Amino acid sequence: MNQLFNYDNPIMQFISKIFDLIILNLFFLLFSIPIVTMGASLSALYYVCLKLLRGEEPYIWQNFFKAFRQNLKQATVVWVLLLLAFALLGMDFYIINSQDTALFAVLRVLLWVVLGALFSISLYIFPVISHFICSTKQSFKNAAYMAIGFLPYTAVMLAISGVLLYLCTVSSKLFAMVIIISGICGHSVIAFTFCIFFDRIFRKYEPK
Description:
Elements: H1 10-32, H2 38-53, H3 60-97, H4 102-131, H5 136-149, H6 151-170, H7 172-202
Helix pairs in contact: 1-2, 1-7, 2-3, 2-4, 2-7, 3-4, 4-5, 6-7
Keywords: Membrane, Transmembrane, Transmembrane helix
Transmembrane segments: 22-48, 76-96, 102-126, 147-168, 174-198
InterPro entries: DUF624
């Protein structure tokens, strides 16, 4: 019985990890409430998740707030720029979908390619900001390079994101379930899962 509650027990370590992710998810949601700060909150989320994955066992609150404060300005600028870019793409889709010609059909395909590229960059850029010290311009370049250079990882993360978005559109029950799980631990679990890929990628650029 004592071994069951021993912290070195794999079961206890798993339970502890889940608890950490629940707490981390709560911090992410709270710091994302103003919406405009969601970029900084995302960078802090990935910062802590990578530490958890590497077994550094950080103090969740201290490390989350540290990363949030340090990356607030840069991550907020990036977040706003991405929101504007997605908004412009949304307007383009609205205009093109109202037309029914061969030319607009080609433009629609091109827009989907641009959307996929932009979404791929958005998957990488906040983890990049949280892990490396570089300018905003360089962060975009690094995120784009990694998204292309590690295409299999990018494809898997895009597929996971696509499945989650699809589940939200299947039925109201599934949508409600996704929202509930997201409110408990969904965001941190997804970030932790993605950090499995980011850990392998980032190690290639870290000083030996």
